[in-house]
Amino acid sequence: MPAYGGPSIVMSKIRALITLARPHQYIKNVFIFLPIFFAHKLFDSHALIQTCWAFVVFCLGASSVYVVNDIFDVKIDRIHPIKKHRPLAAGILQKREAFIFAALLLIFSISLTVYKLEWILLIVLGSYLILNYLYSCCLKKFAIIDISVIAVGFVIRVFFGGLSSEVSISHWLIIMTFLLALFLALAKRRDDLLLLSNGHKVRQNIDGYSLEFVSHSMVIMAAVIIVSYILYTVSPEVIMVHKTTNLYLTTFLVIIGLLRYLQITFVEQQSGSPTSIILKDHFMQIVIILWLLSAYLIIY
Prior knowledge:
Oligomer: single chain
Distance between the termini: 61 Å
Structural class: mainly alpha
Shape: globular
Order of helices and strands: HHHHHHHHHHHHH
Radius of gyration: 20 Å
């Protein structure tokens, strides 16, 4: 028995550490590629390689944040119907092991930034890490501030991608990223409220929200996103940059995608994880692929 027990425990720990890093969440870091996509540099080898390094760096940094967040949330995660299965909440890993893992991820992230990217990106990466460490320990306790921090995190991703590839970032891209991230964060809070109605208080700040407030806010944000996107596609400066007046055609897919997300949120009551929705919902996958394809064909 000892001969098999040791290796099996080690493999169990490794699997738990991978789970703790949440690699499925790396899909959020695709926002890093948006600057080169809209700057017509998708096939610029230098810009693409630098952006890929930026993606790797940010994934490692984000994983360190997820680990720290789980350390702070271990007690409340144990009463969550889904999060109770996370390695720390389930007791598979100890806090000491998680701290060491988070430190290693942070060291690798900073080291790669220094050796593969420009030093200025350390400031951007550092701002993201500090903001999210503060979110994990205290900022998430305050309603409105918590979802704003999440949205700012996505904006930082866009800045990180732009600076790594030496691409100037459009104010439209910053605005649209912030609005979309805020919409998704509100959807997550609505799922928390549904859990609260079932007897699971999974967040300390949940008293600052209500179903009516969050639902109305989501509808408002969806409307603002659509209007902003339309204004973006017909903007003279955008038309001049992309040398086309046809970008407005992608608006229909944006509207359909938002309607589907609202359907998932209000009808199916399954808006707790935007990442899971994108990875599992075939309707959303088709809409996103069609949007990327149409935008690519129009822009390139």
